[in-house]
């Protein structure tokens, strides 16, 4: 009987898998050209440092600016009658203002709390009269946190009943000086005529024309007597917190029946809008830097692919799929970005910690100008965690995109042609 020849099995090409060793191999590959690795990682670190430090400087400036604006007039938090913010009428008062102020002051995040009452009135001296905002304050508390109380041009701040403290422009328009008596006329809470006579003991210049020409402060007791408020009434409880950045969250703790608690973003929406516009400009700067770094990394990986073309050809010849080689390039990009981020974030954190404690001195010319607005003569950066997160995400995405471009060349690579590249 004739033997039947069985077909011999053709051995399949072995598949090379790097599996769990992928990250270790990719890390070792980075150090085959140490100079290029350090230069690229240094470029990423410099970009990350620039983004984080610039944003930290900006955030530190914003914090000072917001805090200064809040301490001048509005405070960080205000507890008001629910309708007062939109319709500031005299009758929209807090009935239990003193008890609310005590509750607010007891909060561990609150530095100080005080009461205020305010209304619009006609301010007269001799034959001159001008419209102004009259604000009744507690002088002993107000002077502890309000920067306005320390902006005297002449005289002193309020101390006792019968004192008046007003803007220098308003004083000039009225043609009065220290020791002169002014008459305040307005509409009382019950509809009658509110009348207060006070002696000018000081004038201030805030640098804001709207305030300097239209604000008069008197004691809260004088205001209550003139505008017929009870000893327990006020229009707002003003609170200053330990940190303006967290004041909006603290404000939520003071909401209650027949009252609403407002944070600085509600009290100063124009400041919030300005901050957001500035941040948009910074984000555009972020994008520009990320694009520049991406092109730098593209160049690095293009050089890597050209130099290692024979190596990639050999790996494909022994069975490694192009997809695995591409994955290895992406992991190398991940390690390269991680190295740059560690350096960049670490350097940024150290620099912000040092300069945030000591401050960055400003030129003498700027110092004189800032002093007029009661601003410090140094800049104090505040580490921006958001910037660190955004920069890290942007760099990871950028480096992966940068690795994609040369990796596509590997996808089209043929083993024989790649091996011949070394000849």
Structural class: alpha+beta
Query: Which stretches are poorly predicted, pLDDT < 50 over at least 5 residues?
Result: 1-16
Helix fraction, binned, reads 40-55%
Order of helices and strands: HHEHEEHEEHEEHEHEHEHHHHEHEHH
Mean pLDDT: 84
**What's the overall geometry?**
elongated
Give a count of the beta strands, DSSP E runs of length 2 or more. Answer: 12
Query: How many domain regions?
Result: 2
Query: Sheet with the most strands?
Result: 6 strands, mixed, barrel
Q: What's the tally of helices?
A: 15
Major β-sheet strand ordering: 2-3-8-5-7-6
End-to-end span in angstroms?
56 Å
**What Rg is obtained from the alpha carbons, in whole angstroms?**
34 Å
What portion of the residues fall into strands of 2 or more residues?
Answer: 15-25%
Can you describe this structure?
The chain is of the alpha+beta class. 52% of the residues lie in helices and 18% in strands. It has two domains: 197 residues, no CATH class; 186 residues, no CATH class. It has 15 helices and twelve strands. The protein has a six-stranded mixed β-barrel with strand order 2-3-8-5-7-6, surrounded by four helices. The chain has a two-stranded antiparallel ribbon with strand order 11-12. Helix 2 runs antiparallel to helix 10, helix 2 packs antiparallel against helix 14 and helix 12 runs antiparallel to helix 14. The N terminus is likely disordered.
């Amino acid at each position: 009987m004739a033997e039947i020849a069985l077909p011999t099995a053709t051995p399949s090409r072995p598949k090379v898998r790097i599996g769990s060793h992928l990250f270790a191999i990719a890390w070792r590959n980075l150090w085959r050209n140490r100079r290029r690795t350090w230069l690229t990682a240094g470029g990423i670190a410099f970009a990350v440092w620039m983004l984080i430090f610039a944003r930290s400087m900006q955030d530190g400036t914003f914090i000072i600016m917001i805090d200064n604006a809040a301490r001048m007039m509005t405070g960080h938090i205000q507890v008001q009658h629910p309708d007062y913010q939109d319709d500031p009428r005299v009758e929209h008062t807090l009935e239990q203002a003193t008890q609310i102020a005590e509750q607010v002051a007891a909060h561990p995040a609150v530095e100080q709390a005080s009461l205020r009452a305010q209304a619009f009135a006609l301010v007269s001296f001799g034959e001159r009269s001008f419209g102004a905002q009259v604000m009744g304050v507690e002088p002993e508390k107000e002077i502890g946190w309000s920067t306005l109380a320390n902006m005297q041009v002449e005289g002193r701040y309020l101390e006792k009943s019968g004192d008046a403290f007003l803007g220098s422009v308003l004083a000039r328009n009225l043609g009065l000086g220290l020791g002169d008596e002014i008459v305040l006329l307005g509409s009382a809470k019950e509809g009658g005529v509110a009348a207060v006579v006070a002696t000018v003991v000081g004038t201030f210049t805030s640098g804001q024309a709207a305030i300097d020409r239209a604000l008069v402060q008197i004691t809260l007791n004088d205001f209550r007597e003139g505008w017929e408020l009870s000893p327990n009434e006020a229009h707002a409880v003003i609170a200053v917190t330990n940190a303006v950045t967290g004041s909006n969250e603290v404000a939520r703790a003071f909401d209650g029946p027949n009252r609403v608690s407002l944070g600085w973003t509600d009290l100063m929406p124009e400041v919030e809008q300005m901050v957001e516009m500035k941040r948009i400009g910074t984000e555009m700067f972020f994008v520009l830097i990320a694009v520049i770094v991406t092109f730098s990394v593209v160049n690095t990986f293009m050089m890597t692919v050209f130099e290692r073309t024979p190596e990639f050809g050999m790996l494909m010849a022994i069975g490694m799929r192009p997809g695995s080689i591409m994955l290895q390039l992406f992991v190398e990009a991940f390690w390269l970005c991680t190295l740059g981020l560690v350096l960049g974030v670490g350097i940024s954190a150290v620099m912000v910690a040092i300069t945030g404690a000591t401050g960055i001195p400003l030129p003498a010319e700027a110092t004189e100008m800032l002093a007029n607005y009661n601003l410090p003569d140094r800049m104090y950066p505040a580490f921006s965690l958001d910037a660190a997160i955004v920069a890290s995400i942007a760099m990871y995405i950028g480096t992966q995109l940068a690795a994609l471009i040369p990796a596509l060349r590997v996808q089209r690579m043929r083993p024989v042609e790649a091996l011949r590249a070394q000849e």
